[in-house]
Records
---
Amino acid sequence: MTLNTYNKEDKILLAVDCIIFGFDQEELKILLIKRNFEPEQGKWSLIGGFLKKEEILDEAATRVLQHLTGLNEIYMEQLHTFSKVDRDPADRTLSVAYYALIDLSQPDKNTLLKESAKWFTLKDAPKLIFDHNLMVERAMARLRRKALSKPIGFELLPEKFTMRTLQKLYEAILDNKLDKRNFISKFNSLDILIKLKEKDTSSSKKGAYLFQFDAEKYKRKVEEGFSFKL
Amino acid sequence: MTLNTYNKEDKILLAVDCIIFGFDQEELKILLIKRNFEPEQGKWSLIGGFLKKEEILDEAATRVLQHLTGLNEIYMEQLHTFSKVDRDPADRTLSVAYYALIDLSQPDKNTLLKESAKWFTLKDAPKLIFDHNLMVERAMARLRRKALSKPIGFELLPEKFTMRTLQKLYEAILDNKLDKRNFISKFNSLDILIKLKEKDTSSSKKGAYLFQFDAEKYKRKVEEGFSFKL
DNA sequence: GCAAAAGTGTTTTACCTACACCCATGC
DNA sequence: GCATGGGTGTAGGTAAAACACTTTTGC
């Protein structure tokens, strides 16, 4: 297929790195892996891999995540492309960063394929290789910005959740306390949650009503330009 | 420097494409160029070029813009990386899109180096090659989103401008009419403009006060997490 | 009966919105 | 003196923010 038109141009290695956020009903976590090849073998890193010639970026990100953790059907979003010339000392490599949010209360998502992969709370995360810390910072900023205008984070919760859990998630993302009553009435007014008859009694004697995300309603609202301010 | 670690990985061509928005006090425009090489020679395209091995993306974007238009010291921002496998029929090529805003009232920015480059109003822009129309759409969406929460667009204006001009810019970006009084009091309350004693008499007999962007104040506010809602 | 978490409303305040008239000047 | 664009303020509604007590139940 190649027409030889671009023969003189440089070809470059393209990596994909994934910032995987998880929420375990209490804290926001991030998935890291101990690198098992040079350079920087043995250091902690984001999960990543190289883009193959016949692949699009979204596929590569999905493949990398699936391969190193067994996780699949995870919603990922492209974040930014990092290009500092010496960011990887082994070779000139660009990296396209992706980020995702996953629900750690589902046991199958909590168990990781590789021994070398591990969940860290954001505060305890070690220093990472290359520019990976920068990537995490940027992903965190994006997550925060999105959380303020979109009901992001349904990917980070089990199918059924309590208002308390939802609020804790938002508090973890935004890193501040929110008022319980205002939070609830805000989400009620958005009209994208279904209140179930069931209760969750795992964390209290009284039990808390479970809610579900109304994906249909939300989709319709998004099409009309839905967004809110928390 | 290469450690041979990544020898088996694919290397890929990386392009940089620039969506250059301009504002001439009346309308929002976009800079396009008639392509003078294959494939798609003679068709309209964004300005673009290939990333060189020793270059970072921001530099490549700047170089491409400078080389094809003579424009320099333009603020650009990375938008998104496009990776559809057959987006360029000549060879597998990824493209990192950048966007910029420039002020067309300064005569030196209005004159273009190459005959083949031309400013189009958004409505009159022709169909573009590859996925460039998609890039423009996405850049436009980003610009709109940013305009609603940041005093973007100071890059699109001369150093001194009237409130009327600023409002017209916002109307062009958001594609709707705004109320004069509300707009002015909004911007006044943000406290990032300096009202000058000078007036601009080019568009009226009475003359309109000129304003300047207070970069210092704005920087301080940004550090404190400044943002607004228009 | 008390500890622990759930649930629930009201008041105040800030901001957004809609709206219309006078002013200064050049011709 | 009139046409053209420039400048200005207020009132009403909506949404955000602050705030405290009662309920349920297991122990």
---
Amino acid sequence: MNPQFHKGVIEMCVLSLVSARDRYGYELVEAISTELPISEGTIYPILRRLTQEGYFETYLQESNEGPPRKYYRMTRKGRSFTDSTAKEWTQFAKSVDRLLNQKN
Amino acid sequence: MNPQFHKGVIEMCVLSLVSARDRYGYELVEAISTELPISEGTIYPILRRLTQEGYFETYLQESNEGPPRKYYRMTRKGRSFTDSTAKEWTQFAKSVDRLLNQKN
DNA sequence: AGGCAGTACCGTGCAATGCAAGGTACTGTG
DNA sequence: CACAGTACCTTGCATTGCACGGTACTGCCT
């Protein structure tokens, strides 16, 4: 898989998954890994950045399977950002398809 | 448009367009610009790199509308690379769609 | 004649981001 | 008590798009 394709898209996937329900980092790594090859070193910096930018709020919750989990909850600002990013992606994918199918 | 989405994809569009028929740089900028906002500073380095990697061959052709055009012709190696890149893209886009529509 | 818009090429340096690699620490099981 | 699994985190590198700047040729308008 061309790793460059991932640029910007993994952030969008994180946004989308957190918008569906609260998530913790390790969980996101596992969820995205089912579809795309990624590592923890990718996710944690994204979570930190999106939190700093006001798209996420965090809270800790103890777990009986290891250390406490840091959950990410989407803010209203985050929700609107997620929506516009997803729309941009859809538009972008359509544009690329048109270019790939252009036969002259 | 999130500029990060472009990473790797513009290269693929260049490959696809040259695979349909020989193209020169400025022409590619115009063709891709109809769908995605890009600049010449993006295309020329890509063309240089793909040529160095053996995916393109070049030849000059005079024009009556300005300076001579440098045409890019796809090699066999380039054709196989284009095919696998396009397949990867299709697969990738499907994976992203699945992640975006994952509602729990 | 001179200037300008359009065509066409090229290079440099910055910003963004994914990832490899490494580290810490908690829990339950063999 | 070691180890696998869970869970967090940081640093530095590589890639790549793009802003910006530069060169040069053609034809048109004044």
